[in-house]
Design brief:
homotetramer; alpha+beta; Hypothetical protein af1432; Growth Hormone, Chain: A; 2 domains; four-stranded mixed sheet; three-stranded antiparallel sheet; 9 strands; about 50% helix; about 10% strand; globular
């Protein structure tokens, strides 16, 4: 109910109020509305059926938290002007505007090598033109060029409103309630010192719990082996479709997907509004509707992979701390080759069916926009120094896991 | 995480356990998996951004509640065999298997005059063949041919597990928490008397609250004026597309949507497995991806309506208890005709842009599988008789509201 | 954690902020702190073990809701000065300051005929002296002498912050979640028209749900037959103790309870600060500790009744819409007389063991500070007129139930 | 509503079912009913107003979780007989039966040197006589003499139903939601291997979160500096009252408190049923009602301390990782001596007003009934070995904090 009431129902926060006209117009803009059909966790719902929440809803949620944070800081006598508020709200609302469908897979295929952050900036600049400069402050905050750095830190840091909302929202919708955090509690503990965002000492346990929750969500959701398997499968499907389109112009795709199959996109392309519009036309439905059609394509690689996805016959994926020993690898590879033969798929396509690699996660980065605690005595400490245990220090270590994936029937 | 663990995370109930092998196989069946891409509330997320939950999840939830209900009845010494349990679980799991994308709109257009219940039965019979008769008891329960009627009433009555789950789930995801009900409370109050499902007297307030919640959800969600407006718009788009496809074979559609645009389907068609498969291939992504393409179709009716939908420039819809007075109607009609002229759309297409009709709702039907209360003295009363107030009796009255819808720019 | 942080944890709202110095000082005042040992629902925890929440917590909660309501009204451009805010917050914080332990029983015994409202006013006036007139505006609001009537209506009307909090809190702690209401939702719908508190039309379903919830809580909690039985038993115990103290000065009581056993208090007594202090010294612990001692008192009436309470051997209580027929009554009376004989209690004490009477409840009073709906067209309607169903009109009818109570062993 | 329905409302779990007659009779026993007036967190509500939940409610909750755990283990084909179920339920229900009011303070004063566990055993043995041996199995389970050790581990280990319930319940009622854990999630992950309780590998993150939550609750609630200060104050008050009663027989106390003031109790006393009854007569109301009276006692130590408690003028308490430096200590001591002089309290009573000591906490004990993880490959590992990070190992370190407490007016 965007229009008159300007109040939106939200299962997590109850209500989200749209605070001003600019924010309302941004929400109504087609480039923002398109996020309604882009699921936040891509194919994560293959593992967690509830995880069908969209980037549209996440952006609104993060904007709501920013609103709360500003309200809280003002109550602590941090002066924040109406202009600054508008800028911060617009910056967080649009922080994910560059995301396409299944973003991670996309960055490896349809817009290879072009990050959603880079695309997002192009959208921001173009919107600023359209809105006659009203987004200039939002852009300065976004790019960390505004002197009061805490605004940028609220938008993008290790304790920003983006992370607070997505952790909360992803836990909520997946039903993995280990990840549930107390956003209102953390926000109440925020303060500003020397223009930097800080957390008051009594909030240290909340921050600790937030970092622990983040790590849990990584291994239980974002890097869950079946989620990973689904994502890798999608990458392979899109790579193959892109290869095929070079020789078979008749391969089906929705019109919105077409240009991204046919052309190798670079970030420069997004300097042209037509490509921004083309990108904005693309959403989850294009990928999925096309992929359903590809189940019946004559190319056995494309059809086999597409059927695996649609019928949810996913690859087996082994995920472990140690690298796969070469001998184990060789055994599996042989099984996959046998599988290919029996499915009449040439062995040169092995790399579509036998996938290896690694993923890693670090819950807290020591040197990157770290979380500062304002001690009761006025001192500022990094959160890992302020805590009474070494827990948090261990959270800043990188954990790498190695994977190997292949069709389930290739298991011994 | 269907496979090994057989436990699925659910944001509402925490965990859903898959209780046996048959249920697992039904869930893994492609005809069931397709429900992952069919949203329970269709375009309801245009009003309530969180309302993106799927029929897949609802069916699992209803199955979970059935499991709980059976567990509860057994604890009250109602004997229920393993076979009966399996039958009841399968019946509720598959109760919505006949739904297509945007079901209500579909029944007015792509499968005109064919109800999802009718299609569902065809699916059930075909699945029973495939599962070698293992669904026979489920079908008997579903069709109310099994002597212990309470099983059917748990699947389909005015207090069935379907309604409990959808009311709860729809409230939860929309964030309209007026509709939240205590499913576990109601289930704890269920009992069986003379093979009929009854509610124990102390549960009367819970039933009352359930009926009130149901009425609230009707007017706040299911028949919300913007939701209605969206649904009417979709019906008009699909009607127009179906008209056009007769003369313009080149109009884009996804392959899965194609047959339903080209052919007038009847329920007899679903006697053929190929049509069941065709129907099962169709989901929300086909409709939405096609509709996005139609924004650029040369037909001004189709493109105008499709753009309205994608850009969320919905029709204004007035909803009220009294019929629209003829003079008001005429004024609006003139405005719409002017709008058509200025958009170069012939006036013969007025019925695509000026819509009137009515909707109605009755929270409780007195004569249709009514809710029986088991009084402390052993008597059975209808819930409207057992309550100490006339509230519930008023809930059994039909409330009709009349609507008129047209492009927003036609407002004075 | 009142002091430095001025944030109090609350299981319902998460956090309650203490908004200013005056409110902080009122909370720290011993007359307010004493509410920590006065349970909101008296002996309600005999039926609902969780119902051990205190009037202290309720008063803080109602103050929190007032804070939210003021914040909301300001966002709708209703001007509210800092003085007015302080007055409204103080008025709601202190609205229950006149409550003693087991308030309802007390008003029938220890302070017979003196209402907690009357005592509350005495406290308010005395506090105003102590706070040098800072509570004058609060008192005017409380007594409905302040011209902007909506402040009084927020403190005391059929949709005031008191009721919102107690309904919510009582549901929450009893676990009777049929009574859970959306306080934030209702508050968001409040507005002011002609200085009167109104609810916007779209909030009508929330108000309806609130009234339904209120009725449910009456019958499921406040007038629950076992709760009623407990309360009647306590009244009889205190009456008997008061009789005994006239002849037996040695009967045990805590010092705080003493004066209220010995003297017949009138409202005039509370004009003296010493009696205010005496009343403020009394809490649940005095009643319960004394009652435990009375189990061993030589008077068989007192000891029998006290043992019933402590060991939770409560009276059987029948509660029904129709009056108890005289013949049934006589049969029971005979059983009770037999019981008295076998317990060596003279029959003149029958009225301590055989109790009859009636209770009534009306969820909504039509003529008393009724709830006004602000229709979309600007008209003001009573909520019972604005609703599309007759539900609400039936809620304004009085429902009377008749009871008869006696020792359980007197059942046939 | 114990009686007929045998369903009890619970704000946390919704409903608690009383599973059989023995459990019902135990709950109705006066020794169990008395727990209704013993608050789980003693004076913790001075800091967290919601923390007024009782040991009665906690015992029911733990019993409920045991019921769930047994249900879950059976569903994994662990055979559990009806007898064993009854034993385990009775054992957990009565695990805290030896607690008196303000248990921790009591063990330092009124029953000095006698632990609640020791008293609990006396109650258990006496109840077993009364119930004619029906509690024998419960006692064997409780004392870890039953061969199937997992029953004992469910009652008492580092992941027992006691801890699950109290952590959950304390978080819930305090509103410190960092401590909220997923009891149903953890219970679903339990299994039995070689008669030992184990957690399945996929539950490792839930266990980790449980241990983290436990540590948070220690520092935020159980050892919160104001909670600690309140507890120390109560200890000093009871010590002083016990000293005074030796010379002043007229000092007020409730009858139930009397014997514990007058006599030095030893564990042998509890071999006599009269002392068990005396102990069972004592609850929070005796302590608090007596303490209110002591505000007016002529002894300045007793009256000053009692007034501090009732009026909530608590001691300042400093809590820190390092010991208080002697020079700081001396300065404070001087201030306190000055305070005593000005209050006409002889300096020999310094130890009542200047308190120092230390508290410590270890979230996980490596060698005491540790938590075993059942890895996917069948191996059993301690949870600290099974986790991929060193977090958990650090949780097994003892953290000691030192405190110093004194009247607030002695601050510089």
């Amino acid at each position: 109910m965007v229009h008159k009431t300007r109040i939106i129902n939200d299962p997590i926060y109850g209500f989200i109020t749209i605070p001003n006209e600019l924010i309302l117009q941004l929400i109504e803009h087609p480039w923002f509305q398109r996020l309604r059909n882009i699921r936040q966790l891509g194919l994560g719902h293959y593992v967690y059926p509830g995880a069908i929440h969209t980037r549209f809803h996440h952006a609104l949620g993060a904007m709501h938290l920013m609103h709360e944070a500003i309200h809280n800081l003002r109550s602590k006598n941090i002066p924040i002007s109406a202009k600054e508020e508008e800028g911060a709200l617009a910056a967080i609302l649009l922080h994910d505007i560059g995301h396409g469908p299944f973003s991670h897979a996309l960055e490896h295929t349809l817009v290879k090598g072009v990050s959603h952050e880079a695309i997002g900036k192009k959208f921001l600049y173009e919107l600023n033109k359209e809105f006659k400069g009203k987004l200039s402050l939002a852009i300065r905050i976004f790019e960390n060029k505004y002197p009061r750095a805490f605004f940028h830190q609220l938008v993008s840091s290790q304790l920003d409103m983006d992370r607070l909302d997505y952790l909360m929202r992803d836990s909520f919708f997946t039903g993995v309630n280990e990840g549930v955090i107390s956003t209102d509690r953390i926000i109440k503990m925020l303060n500003v010192k020397n223009n930097e965002l800080v957390v008051e000492q009594k909030g240290i346990y909340s921050v600790e719990k937030f970092l622990i929750a983040r790590r849990l969500m990584y291994w239980q959701v974002y890097l869950h082996k079946t989620v990973l398997s689904t994502e890798l499968l999608l990458i392979k499907i899109l790579q193959r479709a892109k290869e095929i389109v070079q020789k078979d112009k008749n391969i089906f795709s929705t019109p919105a997907l077409r240009p991204f199959l046919e052309k190798q996109i670079t970030i420069q392309d997004f300097n042209h509004k037509e490509w921004l519009n083309a990108f904005a036309a693309l959403d989850d439905t294009d990928i999925y509707a096309s992929l359903k059609a590809w189940q019946h394509h004559p190319d056995p690689v494309l059809s086999t992979l597409s059927r695996s996805m649609v019928q949810r016959k996913l690859f087996r994926l082994k995920l472990q701390l140690k690298n796969v020993p070469p001998e184990v690898r060789e055994v599996k590879k042989k099984n996959v080759l046998k599988y290919l033969r029996s499915n009449k798929i040439p062995s040169e396509y092995l790399h579509y069916f036998f996938l290896t690699g690694s993923v890693n996660n670090r819950a807290y980065h020591y040197h990157r926009s770290n979380i500062r605690i304002l001690m009761n005595n006025g001192a500022l400490l990094d959160v890992t120094q302020a805590s009474d245990l070494t827990n948090l220090r261990t959270l800043s270590r990188v954990v790498t896991k190695h994977y190997m994936a292949y069709p389930k029937t290739c298991d011994d």
